[in-house]
Amino acid sequence: MKEKVLEYLKAQQGFVSGQDISEQLGVSRTAVWKYIGALKQEGYEIESVTRKGYRLLQSPEFITEKDIRSFLPENVWPGEIRYFASIDSTNEEAKRQAALGAKDGTLFVADNQTAGKGRRGRNWVSPKGEDIFFTMLFRPDLPAECASMITLVAALAAAAAAEKHSGESCQIKWPNDIVLHGKKICGILTEMGLEMSEISYVIVGVGVNINRKEFPEDISYMATSIRRETGQKVIRAAFLADFLIEYTKRYEQFLQSRSLAPFKEEYEERLVNIGREVKIIRKDEELIRTALGITERGELLAKTAEGDIEKIFTGEVSVRGFYGYV
């Protein structure tokens, strides 16, 4: 019945009284009031005026499978897309479903996460109706040491999609943070399940700050969104579709090469720290190095003050700009 109330509101040009809705749909005015309240909770903007009734001002923008596929070519992402209005974490759900046999190429998308995860166990704030949170599940025929490289492939796809929808240059802070105007708009967390020494599954979780305007004070110096930087609202389903298009073509190349050789030049062109001093933070130790680029396996090439070249592995350190986040 809630859906019928919504459709009735959509069909009206202006205000419609609660009594009219009640009579047309055969429910009590109290029930109409409750359905209106439920629709508001879901994000529908409904104006209520005494003696005039109700008027639908704006509908929320959803990221269901239907919404996403409306922007996707038919040959892109044949795998299942599972949508959740709210969930603890798309990464956690992907792991649960992987254990139950979910197939290669399953996509988990949420409008809200109650326990979103970032790198190194950090929390990822996941407000409803503003940003994108999704996880891709793969079962690649790859050696375990290749799994971390998938993160960088995803970073390239996210940067390309963000650039298209922002109209601005988007860079990457090694290994996988997407940067717009010097601030982070996207983080990627890759996790792996093993059977013996073989990959059972790889999950790639992506969180993109799309339309959020406000950020907690403790991260506002380093975090932003596309809308905050450009002033333009982004259709989330369209963004996610573009990410999948960009990711799919790179992932197929990666499976063939089993290295980042095809993407090394593209990645280094986006690498925000290249040629600059960075702080490499390993537990309680901070090292100053100059970032030179990446290897074909995704390691950061860093030069010491003495001119020696080191390879920095993902997962073992945190990298920061010498004067701040980048």
What is the element layout, followed by pairings?
Elements (H helix, E strand, L loop, with lengths): L1 H9 L7 H8 L3 H13 L3 E5 L3 E6 L6 H5 L11 E4 L5 H10 L6 E5 L21 E7 L8 H20 L3 E4 L3 E4 L2 E13 L2 E11 L17 H5 L5 H22 L6 H7 L6 E6 L2 E10 L5 E4 L5 E4 L5 E4 L5
Parallel strand pairs: 3-4
Antiparallel strand pairs: 1-2, 4-5, 5-9, 6-7, 7-8, 8-9, 10-11, 10-14, 11-12, 12-13
Helix pairs in contact: 2-3, 6-8
Describe the structure.
The structure is a single chain. The chain starts with a helix and ends in a 5-residue tail after the last strand. A hairpin with a 3-residue loop joins β1 and β2. The chain has helices at 2-10, 18-25, 29-41, 65-69, 90-99, 147-166, 226-230, 236-257, 264-270; strands at 45-49, 53-58, 81-84, 106-110, 132-138, 170-173, 177-180, 183-195, 198-208, 277-282, 285-294, 300-303, 309-312, 318-321. The longest helix has 22 residues, at 236-257. The chain is elongated and about 80 Å long. The strands form three sheets. The protein has a seven-stranded mixed sheet, sandwiched between helices. A five-stranded antiparallel sheet has the order 13-12-11-10-14. It is built from nine helices and 14 strands.
In short:
A hairpin with a 2-residue loop joins strand 8 and strand 9 (198-208). It contains nine helices and 14 strands.
Termini separation: 51 Å
SS summary, helix count: 9
Q: What's the main sheet like?
A: 7 strands, mixed
- Which structural class do you get from the secondary structure elements? alpha+beta
CA radius of gyration: 23 Å
Counting DSSP E segments of at least 2 residues, the number of strands comes to 14
Shape designation: elongated
Q: What percent of residues are in strands?
A: 25-35%
Widest sheet: strand order? 3-4-5-9-8-7-6
Task: Output mean pLDDT.
Answer: 90
